[in-house]
Amino acid sequence: MYASPIPMHIPDGFLSVVVSIVLWIVSITAIVIALRQTNKQLGEKQLPLMGVLAAAIFAGQMLNFSVTGGTSGHLMGAAIATILLGPWQAMLVMTSVVSIQALLFQDGGLLVLGANIFNMGVVGVAVAYFVYRAFQQFSKGARWGILTGGFAAAWLSIFIASLGVALQLAISGTSPANIAIPAMGGIHALIGIGEGLITVGALSFLLVARPDLLGTGDSRGKTSIGVWVGGLVITLALAIISPLASTHPDGLEWVAEQKGFLDTAREPLFNIIPDYVFPGISNQALATIVAGVVGSLIVLGVTLGIAYSRRRATKANQ
Amino acid sequence: MPHRLEPYREGNSPIHSLDSRVRVVMVLVFILVCALVPVGAWAVYILLLALILSAELLTDLGIAYFIKRSLMVLPFVLAALPLVFSTPHGIQFNPAGLERFISIALKSWISVQAAILLAVTTPFDQLLLALRALHLPRLLVAVIGLMWRYLFVMVDEVTHMMLARAARSGSDNPARRTGGTVVWRARVTGGMAGGLLLRSLDHSDRVYHAMLSRGYDGEVRTLPQPSLTTANRWLLAGFILFAIFLVALSILFWG
User: Fold this and answer.
1) Which of A68, A308, B155, B222 could crosslink A59 through cysteines, CB 3.0-4.6 Å?
2) Cα separation, A234 vs A228, whole angstroms
3) Do A55 and B185 touch (CB under 8 A)?
4) Higher per-residue confidence, A121 vs B89
């Protein structure tokens, strides 16, 4: 039995059909562009490279280190894949990993696979690329730039992706925005530290063993402006929308209105933003704090539950 | 003996002998139906659950097998739990939220059973063919195929690495933790991840040369697939019609 340790794979039933389809379209567009770019950039070697590296990322997600009291740090791998392969190939690698997890191990749903690819493959990679490139440019490729950039890229890719998950759940009416966003964001801010530390460890190992991979690899080739800007925009958008949506109960509805699908949202079939999911308008500050605490406890429970079931699964296998 | 990660279970059941392309589409349609059925349409949920349970019965693997595996979706259900306690007037019990929460949990549980059914009755090469038949890009399908082939190698590699680390981290006093701080432990794990990536890069190099020596020229070729039999076409059409009927009915009554 296998279950990915990162509580970011949304199962079926948790996203509304509209959100699922919209994110499928976005992901498919990104994948098509990535396929074109990959075909252009590299020769025939790309296929075995991406296939085997995807397998390694999948297996690498099993690596863990104990933090405290049964919790452990893990790797998602979007950042390290981006640093090693460049954004387009990393997107395809993460897409393969997430697809296999959904298709074979039911880790994440099938109808919502587009959303999971979007969160881990597109957002995770674009954000990691934007941050890492920014550090590279700033440090002129120095060692400290690679390491701090790697940490920042890994942490931010996890954190921003989790905000994306929370927003999608909130828009689908599955989890109230003012609970989902602080809870997902909070717990992934911690998980991201583990991701960042492992990424730094891996990078410093590679710097010693194969510096050419980090120095002359695709990641130092010409910048893919599109992905860089995309990563910047995604980071800014989610970083601005999330606190808005979680502190101002109308925040999400405002966004929805701007996008012009509020009318669709009101239809009973889709019911994107049921009003009752936004509690605490009167004593908003208190509600937010209570919600944050409750939410964090819940997600902590989720993480512990996953850790526990994984430990049991490992024991059962031995 | 299959690898412990391999989800496919052999069998001669009617589910196993169904054309894989038909099975993939049926499972996707079934999950789509689960998503489209409105909140609180309990009768439809029971029908869907009965459908998936009977399909599970048909596989001869035993329902317990499916139920046990499907429980892994449970932790995520907690994400929807706040619905029960949120209202526009603050934090208090919300019956509509409870209905929504149970609906989400049930839909998710039924959907994941369908996904398990697909994984345990479809050999991986058949799954790849079905993905190709659904017009997924050839390169992506090829990457997924190669990934699966080397997945077990890499997973075994990681298992060995973790075993080696555990073997070196022994202590006669279980209360005392060995090794350094959390950061130190994270860096050790990072080193393992780096090593794993390095090995996988070397490995992909060898795979590439092996592919070259067997005539690989950068093109991914697949054999043309036989067209669906008439019976399978009717089955698929009937199932999709039934799905549309079910969704329409459930929206009419509960929407």
Assistant:
1) B155
2) 10
3) no
4) A121
Cβ contact, residue pair A294, B82, below 8 Å: yes
Contact B217, A44 (CB under 8 A): yes
Phi-psi region of A86 (alpha: psi -120 to 50; beta: other; left: phi over 0): left
Q: How buried is A104 (Cβ within 10 angstroms: 0-12 exposed, 13-18 middle, 19+ buried)?
A: buried
Q: What percent of chain A has pLDDT over 90?
A: 35
Mean per-residue pLDDT of chain A: 77
For domain A17-60+67-317, the CATH class is mainly alpha
Could you tell me how far CA B167 lies from the centroid of its own chain? 33
A37-52: average pLDDT: 82
**Which residues have a Cβ under 8 Å from the Cβ of B150 and sit 6 or more positions away?**
A51, A52, A55, B200, B203, B207
Asked if B86 and A179 come within 8 Å (Cβ–Cβ), the reply is yes
A48 to chain B, minimum CA–CA distance in Å? 5
Residue partners of B201: CB distance under 8 A and separation at least 6: A49, A52, A53, A210, A213
* Residue B190 CB contacts under 8 Å (≥ 6 apart), including other chains: A197, A198, A199, A200, A201, A202, A203, A204, A205
- Cβ pair A11:B108 closer than 8 A: yes
pLDDT, tens digit, for every residue of A230-248? 888 888 888 888 877 776 5
Residues of chain B in contact with residue A275, where contact means CB-CB under 8 angstroms, are 88
For residue A161, give the amino acid letter: A
Categorize the per-residue pLDDT at A221 as very low, low, confident or very high, splitting at 50, 70 and 90. low
β-sheet bridge partners, residue A73 = A65
d(CA A303, CA A294): 14
Of B15, B42, B86, B9, residue with least CA distance to A298: B86
C-beta neighbour count of A285 within 10 angstroms? 9
- Tell me the chain A residues in contact with residue B198 when contact means C-beta distances shorter than 8 Å: 205-206, 209-210
DSSP B223: P
> In b/e form, how buried is each residue of B98-132, taking b as 16+ CB within 10 angstroms?
eebbbbbbbbbbbbbbbbbbbbbbbebebbbbbbb
Give the span between the Cα atoms of A156 and B62, in whole angstroms: 44
Which stretch of A64-68, A157-161, A301-305, B175-179 has the lowest confidence by average pLDDT? A301-305
Phi, psi of A248 (to 5 degrees): -100, 110
Domain boundaries defined on chain A = 17-60+67-317
CA gyration radius, chain B: 24
Q: Is the pLDDT of residue A269 over 50?
A: no
Chains A & B: contacts with CB separation below 8 Å: 338
